[in-house]
Specification:
Strand order of the largest sheet: 6-5-1-7
Distance between the termini: 79 Å
Structural class: alpha/beta
CATH architecture of the largest domain: Roll
Strand content: 15-25%
Number of strands: 11
Number of helices: 5
Helix content: 10-25%
Radius of gyration: 29 Å
Shape: elongated
CATH topology of the largest domain: Urease, subunit C, domain 1
CATH superfamily of the largest domain: Urease, subunit C, domain 1
């Protein structure tokens, strides 16, 4: 009976132990990224005049990475730093990937990406950098050659700031592509 009480007491004490949040290197990483240009973005914000803070990895030659490797387990970043430091998390089941100088921003989650718009842009007439309405219409006419009559042609990217006094109108488009409805969106 005393052994059972002792065992229960030990289990209770072990259950009350503080979780330090630290990860043991002996558990290993599921993924180790090495030989990367890692920018942690952990330095201070620029000064109000835009100048770089002293703790930023920046000098007269520009920006420099502040780490070269990352160890990850089950989606959690365990370590960011040197290749040797990351390899301390190497286990039998770890996948090690040599990034050969690729840039990594660990933990960056871009929550404002217009993925649908990017995909749609691949199927639209790119009007970015077009200087005149005539050039714009030439690109629409070129697309019309490969689109069945009656189908929409969508163009995106004309600069409404540069064309503020001469927005495109339907006269030139209707004359050039009478068999297609056309929609052109500005930047």
């Amino acid at each position: 009976m005393n052994q059972l009480k002792t065992l229960l007491l030990l289990a209770l004490v072990a259950g009350c132990a503080e979780d330090t949040g630290e990860t043991s290197q002996t558990e290993g990483a599921s993924l180790i990224l090495t030989n990367a240009r890692v920018y942690t973005l952990t330095w201070d914000e620029p000064a109000t005049d835009g100048s770089v803070q002293p703790d930023a990895p920046y000098d007269e030659n520009g920006w420099h990475p502040d780490a070269e490797a990352i160890a990850i387990r089950d989606g959690d970043i365990l370590f960011v730093g040197s290749n040797d430091g990351a390899m301390a998390f190497n286990a039998k089941t770890s996948r090690v990937v040599d990034l050969a100088g690729a840039t990594v921003l660990p933990g960056l989650v871009d929550s404002h990406t217009h993925v649908f718009g990017l995909g749609a842009l691949l199927d639209q007439v790119n009007l970015i950098g077009v200087a005149t309405e005539e050039e714009d219409v030439e690109l629409i006419v070129e697309r019309a050659k490969s689109v069945p009559k009656g189908e929409w042609i969508v163009g995106r990217g004309w600069d409404d700031g540069a064309w503020a006094n001469a927005y495109p109108d339907k006269a030139l488009l209707s004359a050039a592509v009478p068999d297609h409805p056309v929609f052109m969106d500005s930047l």
